[in-house]
Design goal:
Chain lengths: 289, 379
């Protein structure tokens, strides 16, 4: 078992002939993911690496292959339309890797997908991986290991760092989800936490947040009210100055709100074990599972 | 990207919002000429990307053109929150009957643009929100339908009782929403929105922050960037596609990924050091980016040691190693380097570094400790 992506995933790659799309499509195939289709308008009828059929539209790909999940690697200016298209084609999960999607585009995309019950992960995210089952996105497969820890994070490489620390001490993962570093995203911490709570294969959760917004504070409340499984948390950006965007569009302390201190306090108050540094993850988890 | 007040006023004016005539001066003599043209008392306002200009002495009233020149001379060149004032706005000192606030911001929890109005204008809206939140009225806008007339009217009634003023304010709100969309803004505010003794409603001050992700498709807005208002090293980094923020410490940090970069800074602090910067070299595998990054860090005289923390996923460690070797050849670095690399092509990277006389580790904690120790020894 796993959450969001797994053995049932049948994946269509939007932008499969682009630089990033073709590289990562290859990596996902190599990992054993069921990549059943690719989409590049004008290249319908061709094949990717002589095995994956390419279609002109997502709708064609879905009707021909039964794809149920889409991953998007198109440039930022086409990303909103790619998300609309995937939802209209009827896939139930859209994972948008693209970075730099204008936030006004997301104010239109999010309600549209919600009305059609399409789950969106991202944008500006590394995607999700259920080790041993499926990889959708760009999380390096070789650092992951099958197991029972759920990982959810707003970051990319910091997530890899923490997955790496888990894997090398034998703590494998059920699913790792990168929800993205933008201010408006499709799937938030609470969505992931409730999925992990319901997943029989997940025993504990690692939640990696950062400065900006209140998603972590809301998640802390959810943990204290609705979760039985242990949660270990980290917040990046304790030394970030207020008013500056720290790389991620959503990582900004506005006024005095969204600080790391505030988030760490809400974690602690909710009974979440708070990591002071990434290498605390293993000792804190071993005490709890 | 922050716009200057005069740029934001220009966009509002183009959207049809009443904005009093005003002009920008870069020299005191220009301020005098503008004041002559405007007639009557004027206000001279520093054009910098910082709040609290009034408190810092960057806003002054002048009764006549001669005084306008004098006040402009005082403000031009002054420092406000570390930024040098290169331009002033010369505006008529309007007679004001009331001051309100109108703003539109992207709200993360409702995931929509939210219109906020308050009869308590002319002061920092965050202060109003903290002290008298009941004086702020909020309305999430459905982006598919825009700001409906009755919604704007409903909020305008929170500001004024006079129906003429209510209609004027409602029109201004709808035009502000269009200006917000047209600029690709994440924030657009009028503070204060004033009424004059004659009963006219007008925007006296404006602030617009543009979503950086909009700039590619809005060249007209992108052209408004004033690089002289930013830190020079940050401009250089941005042009190279790096995400860089200068801080005040002495441990230079070069990291791939924003989250890991923040966590690295935090770990420097955890081990008793002080980070000199935030720097994310991004996910690409371009050795040239590493060269630029190292050059920017090394140009900061406060930096006593330089820490590389690379987790190779998409980024290949051997590319970063090549960049380090190339950069140190070009830059003749005098400060010690501490390198931590792990992940994709880790062994290749270690070989490249060793052949060129560097040592590198794979443990993040150990590398940070060592960089902090070296910085402390050199300080």
């Amino acid at each position: 078992m796993s959450v969001f992506v797994g053995r049932d995933t049948r994946l269509v790659v939007q932008g499969i002939t682009g630089r990033d799309g073709s590289f990562h499509a290859g990596q996902m195939l190599e990992y054993g993911t069921a990549v059943v289709a690719g989409v590049t308008p004008g290249k319908g009828g061709q094949k990717f690496e002589n095995k994956v059929p390419i279609f002109d539209t997502v709708a064609d790909a879905v009707s021909a292959t039964g794809a149920n999940t889409s991953v998007i690697y198109v440039p930022a200016r086409f990303a909103a339309d790619a998300m609309f298209e995937a939802s209209d084609a009827g896939v139930s999960l859209v994972v948008c890797i693209t970075e730099g999607v204008p936030v006004l585009d997301m104010t239109r995309v999010l309600p549209y997908l919600k009305e059609r019950s399409t789950r969106l992960i991202g944008p500006n995210c590394p995607g999700a991986i259920s080790p041993g089952c499926a990889k959708v996105g760009i999380i390096p497969g070789q650092i992951c290991r099958e197991g029972h820890i759920g990982v959810v994070s707003r970051s990319g490489t910091l997530t890899y760092e923490i997955i790496h620390q888990l894997s090398r001490t034998g703590l494998g993962q059920s699913t790792c989800v990168g929800i993205g570093g933008d201010p408006l995203i499709g799937t938030n911490f609470i969505d992931c936490l409730s999925a992990f709570e319901a997943d029989p294969d997940t025993q504990a959760v690692v939640m990696i947040g950062e400065i900006g917004g209140t998603d972590e504070q809301n998640a802390a409340q959810f943990v204290s009210q609705s979760m039985k499984k242990p949660v270990v948390g980290f917040i990046a950006g304790q030394t970030a100055p207020p008013g500056r965007r720290m790389g991620h569009a959503g990582a900004i302390i506005s006024g005095s709100s969204g600080t790391a201190a505030e988030k760490m306090q809400s974690f602690a108050a909710a009974g979440i074990a708070v990591m002071q540094r990434p290498s605390d993850v293993v000792p804190l988890l071993k005490d709890r599972v | 990207m922050n716009l200057h007040e005069y740029q934001a006023r220009g966009l509002l004016k183009a959207a049809g919002i009443p904005v009093p005539d005003a002009e920008v001066a870069e020299r005191p003599e220009e301020a005098e000429i503008i004041a002559k043209r405007l007639r009557g008392p004027v206000v001279i306002k520093a054009q910098v990307h910082a709040g609290g200009r009034g408190k810092a002495g960057g806003v002054k009233i002048a009764q006549d053109p001669g005084e306008a020149r004098e006040k402009a001379r005082q403000i031009l060149g002054m420092q406000i929150k570390g930024l040098t004032v290169g331009k002033v706005l010369v505006a008529p000192a309007a007679e004001i009957a009331s001051e309100s606030y109108v703003g539109i911001v992207i709200d993360r929890s409702s995931q929509r643009p939210v219109l906020m109005v308050s009869p308590a204008g002319g002061v920092d809206i965050e202060e109003v929100a903290a002290k008298t939140p009941e004086k702020i009225f909020r309305l999430p806008i459905d982006p598919r339908f825009g700001l409906l007339s009755h919604q704007a009217m409903g909020l305008a009634f929170k500001l004024y009782r006079d129906i003429d003023q209510v209609r004027q304010a409602a029109t201004i709100m709808q035009r502000l929403y269009h200006a917000f969309l047209d600029a690709g803004a994440s924030l657009a505010e009028i503070n204060p929105l004033v009424t004059t003794p004659k009963g006219e409603v007008a925007a006296l001050d404006a602030k617009i922050v543009v979503d950086d992700n909009e700039l590619d498709r809005r060249p007209g807005i992108a052209a408004l960037r004033d690089s002289s208002a930013d830190d020079a090293s940050e401009t250089k980094a941005r042009e190279a596609g790096l995400s860089f923020i200068k801080l005040t410490g002495n441990v230079g940090c070069c990291v791939n990924g924003a989250g890991l970069a923040m966590a690295t800074m935090d770990l420097v602090k955890y081990y008793g050091g002080d980070p000199a910067n935030f720097l994310d070299i991004g996910g690409s595998s371009n050795p040239q980016k590493v060269v630029v990054a190292l050059g920017i860090i090394a140009s900061d005289p406060n930096v006593k040691s330089i820490l590389f923390n690379i987790f190779g996923g998409i980024t290949r460690c051997d590319d970063v190693a090549k960049g380090i070797v190339a950069a140190t050849r070009q830059l003749k670095l005098v400060r010690p380097l501490v390198i931590r690399l792990t992940g994709t092509n880790e062994q290749l990277a270690m070989d490249i570094l060793q052949q060129n006389g560097f040592t590198a580790g794979t443990d993040m904690d150990e590398a940070v400790k060592q960089a902090v120790k070296l910085a402390q020894e050199a300080a």
